C-alpha cells in the first residue's frame, strides 16, 4: 500500500496502558480473572490465542468499553473509565470486529466522524479536519469511493472505511480487533504494512490477530492467551515455539524462519506424516 499521502507523524502525547489484576466478562459470565497485562509504549503488540480465550474481551477492557468488575485498567496511571469521553477518544482509538454503519451515510461522512473528539462549540470543523480525512481516505485507497454509500460497498471495502475513520481520529494508541476481517490476502498485507508504518512513526498498536505468521511478522511484542489467562509475553522470536503452539493451540508444527523477513513462521505438520514417523498426531477438534 502506498502511504505517502498520510501524515503518519504520531501525536506528541504518549500513553501507557495496563491492566492490573482485572476481572472482565459479560453480565454473569467471567472471561478472565486477575489478569495483569502491560502494553509497552510505542510497540506493535499482537494478542494471539485460540478462539474464545479472551483476546477480544481484553481489548474491549483496554478500550474502556468493558469496565472490569474487579481490578483496574489504567491509562497513564489513571483509571481509563475515569477519562471524559472526548479526552479518552483523543488518546485511544478502537477498530472493533464489526460495526453497523448508519443508514444512508457516505464514505467521507463516516470517516469524518473520526474527527469528533477534536470538535466542540468553539472549535467546529476546520481545514485540519478536512486534511486528516483526506489523508485517511488516501492511505486506505478510498478517495475514489468517498462519495459512495457505505451500504453499497463490499465487506472488505467497508472494513477499510472503518480503518480510515480510525486513522482520521489520529490517536497515539490504536486498538485493532481482527483488523483484516473480510479482506483478501493482498489487502490484508497492505493494511498490515500501513499499521507497521504508523507504529514506526511512534504510535502504539495493539491488535487481536488470528494469523500467527502475520503476528510474528509485524508485531514486536506478543501476548499469548489461553482460557482467560496470559500464557506468556515477549518478542516473537522468544514466544513462537513448537512447544507453545502445541500447548496453546493443540497443533504439532515446525517453526522456521520466514524466507523474506526471518521472523518465525509456523508450518503445521501433516497428522498422517506424524503418524508414519511414530509421533502422536493431535486429536481433531
Written as H for each helix and E for each strand, in order along the chain, the element string is: EEEHEEHEHHHEHEHEEHHEEH
Computed over alpha carbons, the radius of gyration is 20 Å
| Unreliable stretches | 1-5, 8-12, 279-285
Percent strand: 15-25%
Helix/strand/pairing class, anyone? alpha/beta
- Helix % is 25-40%
Shape: globular
The tally of helices reads 10
Distance between the ends: 37 Å
Q: What topology, given as strand order, has the largest sheet?
A: 6-7-8-3-9-10
Mean pLDDT across all residues, rounded? Answer: 89
Count of individual beta strands:
12
Largest sheet: 6 strands, mixed
Structure notes:
The chain is 31% helix and 25% strand. Strands 6-7-8-3-9-10 form a 6-stranded mixed beta sheet, sandwiched between helices. With 285 residues, it is α/β, with parallel strands linked by helices. The longest helix is centred in the last third of the chain and has 16 residues, at 185-200. It has 10 helices and 12 strands. α6 (185-200) links the parallel β7 (173-177) and β8. It is globular and about 60 Å long.
Amino acid at each position: 500500500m502506498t502511504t505517502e499521502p498520510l501524515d503518519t507523524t504520531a501525536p506528541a502525547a504518549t500513553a501507557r496502558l495496563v491492566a492490573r489484576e482485572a476481572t472482565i466478562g459479560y453480565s454473569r459470565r467471567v472471561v478472565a480473572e486477575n489478569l495483569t497485562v502491560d502494553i509497552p509504549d510505542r510497540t506493535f503488540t499482537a494478542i494471539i490465542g485460540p478462539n474464545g480465550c479472551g483476546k477480544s474481551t481484553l481489548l474491549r477492557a483496554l478500550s474502556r468499553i468493558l469496565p472490569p468488575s474487579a481490578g483496574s485498567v489504567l491509562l497513564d496511571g489513571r483509571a481509563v473509565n475515569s477519562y471524559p469521553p472526548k479526552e479518552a477518544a483523543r488518546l485511544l482509538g478502537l477498530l472493533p470486529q464489526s460495526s453497523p454503519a448508519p443508514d444512508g451515510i457516505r464514505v467521507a461522512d463516516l470517516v469524518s466522524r473520526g474527527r469528533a473528539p477534536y470538535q466542540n462549540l468553539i472549535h467546529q470543523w476546520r481545514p485540519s479536519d478536512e486534511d486528516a480525512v483526506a489523508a485517511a481516505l488516501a492511505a486506505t485507497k478510498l478517495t475514489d469511493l468517498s462519495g459512495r454509500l457505505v451500504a453499497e460497498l463490499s465487506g472488505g471495502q467497508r472494513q477499510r472505511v472503518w480503518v480510515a475513520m480510525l486513522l482520521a481520529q489520529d490517536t497515539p494508541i490504536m486498538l485493532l480487533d481482527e483488523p483484516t476481517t473480510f479482506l483478501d490476502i493482498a489487502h490484508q498485507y497492505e493494511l498490515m504494512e500501513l499499521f507497521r508504518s504508523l507504529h514506526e512513526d511512534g504510535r502504539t498498536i495493539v491488535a487481536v490477530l488470528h494469523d500467527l505468521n502475520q503476528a510474528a511478522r509485524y508485531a514486536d511484542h506478543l501476548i499469548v492467551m489461553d482460557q482467560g489467562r496470559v500464557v506468556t509475553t515477549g518478542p516473537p522470536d522468544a514466544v513462537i515455539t513448537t512447544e507453545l503452539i502445541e500447548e496453546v493451540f493443540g497443533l504439532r508444527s515446525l517453526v522456521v524462519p520466514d524466507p523474506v523477513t526471518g521472523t518465525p513462521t509456523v508450518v503445521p505438520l501433516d497428522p498422517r506424516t506424524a503418524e508414519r514417523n511414530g509421533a502422536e498426531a493431535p486429536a481433531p477438534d
